[in-house]
Amino acid sequence: MNMKYFAATIVGILGIAHYADACTGITLRAKNNDMVVARTVDWHGDEMNNMYVIAPRGHTQKSLTPDGKMDGHEFTSVYGYVGIAVQTPDFVIDGTNEAGLSAGLFYFPEYGEYPWYNKNDKENSIADFELVAWMLSRFSTIDQIKEAIKDITVTNIDPSASTVHWRITDATGKQVILEFIDGEAHFYDSKVGAISNSPGYPWHITNLNNYINLEPGTSNPKKLGDFTLRPFGSDSKMLGLPGDFTPPSRFIRAALLSNYSIPQKDGYESAMKAFHILNNLDVPLGVEFDSGRATNNMPSATQWTIATDLGNRVIYYHTMYNRTIRSIDMKNIDFANVRFQYAPLDTAKVQTIIPIKVK
After folding, report:
1. What stretches of 125-194 show up as alpha helix (H) in DSSP?
2. N or C, fewer C-beta in 10 Å, the chain?
């Protein structure tokens, strides 16, 4: 990376680190046991430099340190991977490797705390925004990550920036949430396949108990004195589902809508179902700002959405500019020989529209 590009990239990265926004993730399992992990990526500050990345085996990356230099931990890919990155191809936000390990980071302000950074031990330091690339390039199982993370120090790109947390899934179907609390790594078994932002994962699981009354279906008529109560429409048993865009409310929607969805026959159908579910978690740009104070006019605060069929190693995504779903089939990539490459998610920032020809 040339220094001029690097300097410009750092400015953009620090903006994201300080003003990162809402993201929501869900997990679906198909009838044939295929597993799909899907999520939104939301940031309202301005348009991020969003790109897909293809990394071969043998690709070497050196981590950024809080000193603003690329002189942290160096790691070389054992596994090739495909991911979606922001600002720089080193900063993979979500991706999957050829062994079926998937990882993604989510904003986690106020509740996380990384280990203390020691510049004398910088060769073992990895920036939080590079941890996904480290996991995808080096490991095939969650157990391997749990062991290896003991020997590294995860740091902020900027010491004053917020922390993030991670969702990790491997080919066995195991899924965990990784959070750093008081400088210590905590791995929580993913109990409902959902993730959002703060507070910590155990709090979100406890908060689900507040919605024990919600279930699929329509309520039956009930007598109240001489008056008969009737639902205004279907789905009335879900009355009370929180509809705002705070992390607790998005977590509840993600958990209930994904767990109550109808299981699909395979990974492809489940990935398509995931996009429909995640439509309920899109963040309209207008709600992010006080009235009349919006700083930009992007199509959405949800800049891109990804659904990954882990069993078949296919990544699907669409963006705020073009909701046409695109795919990357990892089975067609020769990770031993492909070159390291990256490209914008959108070749043209315009919605694909197919005119209907009337005869």
Report:
1. 131-138, 142-148
2. C
Percent of the chain with pLDDT over 70: 94
Per DSSP, 195 falls in state B
- Phi-psi category of residue 67: left, alpha or beta, with phi > 0 → left and psi -120 to 50 → alpha: alpha
Which tokens is 181 given?
A: 């609390």
Q: Indicate the DSSP class of residue 355.
A: P
In a domain, 231, yes or no: no
Strand partners, 305: 40, 318
Per-residue pLDDT reduced to its tens digit, 31-69: 999 999 999 999 988 899 999 999 999 999 999 999 889
pLDDT at 101 over 90: yes
Please identify which residue in the block is written with the tokens 């000193």: 67
Per-residue model confidence as pLDDT tens digits over 262-289? 999 999 999 999 999 999 999 988 887 7
Tokens of 216: 């699929």
Length of the chain: 359
Residue at 358 is within a domain = no
CATH of residue 168's domain is: 3.60.60.10
Residue 94 lies in a domain: yes
- Sequence-separated (6 or more) residues with CB below 8 Å from residue 109: 20, 162, 163, 197, 198
Cα 214 from Cα 256, distance rounded (Å): 8
Higher pLDDT, 10 or 353: 353
Q: 3-class SS at 147?
A: helix
pLDDT of 17 reads 53
Rounded Cα distance between 140 and 155, Å, is: 23
Average pLDDT, the chain: 93
- Structural domain contains residue 238: no
Nearest to 63 by CA among 143, 141, 131, 163: 131
Per-residue tokens: 326: 């695109």
Rounded CA-CA distance 9/342 in Å is 15
Count how many domains the chain has. 1
* Helix, coil or strand: residue 78: coil
Q: Which of 330, 281, 285, 265 is nearest to 38 (CA)?
A: 281
pTM attached to this predicted model: 0.93
The domain containing residue 186 runs over which residues?
3-200+261-344
The amino acid sitting at 119 is K
